[in-house]
Amino acid sequence: xxxxxxxxxxxxxxxxxxxxxxxxxxxxxxxxxxxxxxxxxxxxxxxxxxxxxxxxxxxxxxxxxxxxxxxxxxxxxxxxxxxxxxxxxxxxxxxxxxxxxxxxxxxxxxxxxxxxxxxxxxxxxxxxxxxxxxxxxxxxxxxxxxxxxxxxxxxxxxxxxxxxxxxxxxxxxxxxxxxxxxxxxxxxxxxxxxxxxxxxxxxxxxxxxxxxxxxxxxxxxxxxxxxxxxxxxxxxxxxxxxxxxxxxxxxxxxxxxxxxxxxxxxxxxxxxxxxxxxxxxxxxxxxxxxxxxxxxxxxxxxxxxxxxxxxxxxxxxxxxxxxxxxxxxxxxxxxxxxxxxxxxxxxxxxxxxxxxxxxxxxxxxxxxxxxxxxxxxxxxxxxxxxxxxxxxxxxxxxxxxxxxxxxxxxxxxxxxxxxxxxxxxxxxxxxxxxxxxxxxxxxxxxxxxxxxxxxxxxxxxxxxxxxxxxxxxxxxxxxxxxxxxxxxxxxxxxxxxxxxxxxxxxxxxxxxxx
Length: 514
Known about the structure:
The protein is mainly α and 514 residues long. Helices cover 75% and strands 1% of the residues. The protein has helices at 2-38, 47-65, 70-83, 89-92, 99-116, 119-128, 137-152, 157-181, 192-208, 217-230, 236-261, 272-283, 288-314, 319-327, 330-340, 357-363, 366-385, 387-398, 405-422, 425-442, 448-458, 469-475, 482-513; strands at 345-347, 352-353.
């Protein structure tokens, strides 16, 4: 045990040292490179585009190396663009009022209410208490993954992983107690099933994020780029169809890989059912706040999916559908559900409502909203100044001028994955999203498949603890050796891209051409 503790400390010290070097490198080198780019003659670029290229070099490197917080870098880009005269202030900061920011904000407030009032736990414990789950470790493994994935489609991946983490610990302690009663002492940090259960929790939290546009930032970022750069609007319902297919197959791959690599060595977990039942009893009966939250959430979901059904039954050109989309776009649906929480009373005599502004504000990930707005701003400025077209033409000509849809999706999916392993998947998507869309358009291809491929691949950061917050949460338990995370992450990452991401993109090509 002492050796393992020492090894873990060495790994942590190495990670921290690398982090310091990475940040120092970015702090010093990025501004130097940006200045060098600014003073390098590039005749094909306008002065505004040339200035923006230098700013983009600085922003991209600082997104990767993080010498300052990522949201700060996201504000720095538009600010420098205005100071250098590359673009007017109104145009530079217009993206921060993009309706998709309010879609995200409404989703954050709904998620905060669900977590605050225990609605997410009710669902997780309900699923774990089903008769088909019982005390079977393989079925518990499956149920934990399903509960995590389905919750993270609507609630923050990080919050979902944090919620499921103590549930997993309780189940693992039940295993430890059961084996101790049978005369077998185990150390959970060396127990294969414990590693598998923790990784299933982390990976499912990321996998579930692809289900809905609000499930994880890369989804909305790519939808925002499509809307602002190409005036292509993807509805909530359309994304859920693609997202469900991706989530389903990613989940199957993760379950098969993890269950084979980390099998249970017992047929049942004594005490598992009692543990879940006790947790359900702790929740008690449904409260007014929980009922109110459920109503607000279901209202938002209904408003999000109604256009899909109207499209199916009335057709895309239906005047009813057009009127609905004008009155209830996705952002308004999210805000309607969120604002309802401030109006539904819990105790009207005391003027207590389902959520207060202080509670709601604490649930809004302001940094994510700023990063999202900053990414849209940089992408929009690159498009307006012609910078993204220049870069896109360079890449297309470098590939011989012949770019197929499959090759484009494959290249950018792998690039999104690799960048997401090393830096924030939100920052990675912001960096390559505008380029991918511009290259697709320059090559005469639809930008939708590559945009979906990038969004899906950015959620597959499974190799390192720093790749995603869910990975970091389970790694901190001490039950997940970093070598195991890297090995399983490599398998799931590349199997996922090869057998899920690219096939879904090819399917989208067929739909678009058809």
